[in-house]
Structure formats: C-alpha cells, structure tokens
Amino acid sequence: MPYHVRHHETHAITHIGWLRAAVLGANDGILSTASLIVGVASASSEPRAMLIAGSAGLVAGALSMAAGEYVSVSSQADLEQADLRREARELHEDPVGEHRELTGIYVKRGLEPQLAGKVATQLMDHDALGAHARDELGLSKHNAARPVQAALASAASFAVGAAIPLGVAAISPFRHVAVAVILVSLAMLGALGAIAARTGRAPIVPAVLRVLILGAAAMMITIGLGRLLGTTA
What's the CA gap between 21 and 157, in Å, rounded? Predict the structure, then answer.
C-alpha cells in the first residue's frame, strides 16, 4: 500500500533566495538615496538639484541592482548546471561508483553501512540525479539560482526603498530636509532589519543595531563631504 505524507512545514531556508535580494535592494535603496539627498542638500541651496539627484539615484540604482544581481546569480546558475551535467555524465559512466559515493555520504551522516546502501539504492532508483544533486552537491529547488527573480526583486525593492527618502525630501521644508530624511531613513532601515531577522529566524537586536550604525555612519560621511565640497554659505 503506498505511503503518502503531506508535509506543510515551512523553514527559513525557503526564503533565502528572494529574501537576500529584497533586503539587499531595499537597504541599498534607502541608504544610498538618503545619503545622496543629504549630501546634495548640504552642498547646495537648491531644492530642485537635490530632488533631481535623488530621482536619478533611484532610477540608476534600481537598474544597477537588477543588472548586478542578474549577472551574479546567472553565474551561480551556470555553475550549478555545469555540476549537474558532470554528475549526470558520471552516473551514466559509473553508476556503481556513484552508488558507493552516495552510500558513503549517508554513512557519514550516521546510517549503518547496510542501511545506507539500501537508502542509496532506493533513492537512485527513484531519481538518481536528484539524489546526488541534493546530497552530494547540496542543490535543491529551495536554493536553486533564479537570475530573473533575483534581478526583479532587487530592482523593485531598491526602487521602493529609494522612494522613501525621496518622498520625505519632496514634502519637507528645505531647511529641515536633512534631519527629516535621516530620521525617517534610519527608522525604515531599523524596521527592515527587524523584519529580515524575524523572517530568517535570526536575533533581531543585533540585526537592527548593525544596520542603524552603518546607515548613520554613511549619511554622516556624505553630509561632511557635502559641506566640505559644497557652496552653501
């Protein structure tokens, strides 16, 4: 009688692909655009220049994130496919040796040699390449490289993140724009760090402190550079 099990448990590893791209994109969007805005605001007395710079930073940053993520993840996907092709070739040329290799992996994980051999046999009969991809190469559908998904997630999250300090700059009085952008951006960075840590089952406080310290430092540096190089009286 067939034995079927419905398994609905969700683990943090299933979020790794999109979470990494989304968090990286949003953090970059908020931090780079906020830094750009407060830097230009410190260097110039023209609100229009600040908004133009922020808008250009949003568009350029989103496109850059998408391109960079696509190239990076595509390279990862190419390596994964090359490993899978090599594994398929080895399975065709030396199935006995591959069975022995898989058995050894299960023995190292704690199974008795006889049981490990039976497990390897059944898994290879069901899906030999899938078994070796998962247990020898560490590849699975949960962590497989998806270039298009990663690129879109990075671009969209960067744009959303960048829109926050840009929107604050657009509605704030120019004399208060730097303070407003810094406070709102740090609040959003902290919230994003907490959400990412919670989703990834990681400690929240260290994640929030890390992003706040680095974010504040980046914005203070750009303000200093803006005042040093700018023309504001």
Answer: 8
Cβ–Cβ under 8 Å, residues 169 and 37 = yes
* Most distant CA atoms of the chain, gap in Å: 84
pTM of the model: 0.68
Residues ≥6 apart with Cβ < 8 Å to 37 = 50, 53, 54, 57, 165, 166, 169, 177, 181
Alpha-carbon distance of 26 to 31, in angstroms, equals: 8
Q: Yes or no: say if 123 and 82 are a contact pair by the CB < 8 Å rule.
A: no
Q: Any idea where the domains of the chain sit in the sequence?
A: 14-82+147-229
CB count within 10 Å of CB 76 equals 15
pLDDT digits (tens, 9 = 90+) for 73-91: 888 788 877 877 887 887 7
pLDDT digits (tens, 9 = 90+) for 1-11: 444 444 444 44
Q: Which of 165, 155, 171 is nearest to 189 (CA)?
A: 165
Whole-number Å distance between alpha carbons of 29 and 33? 6
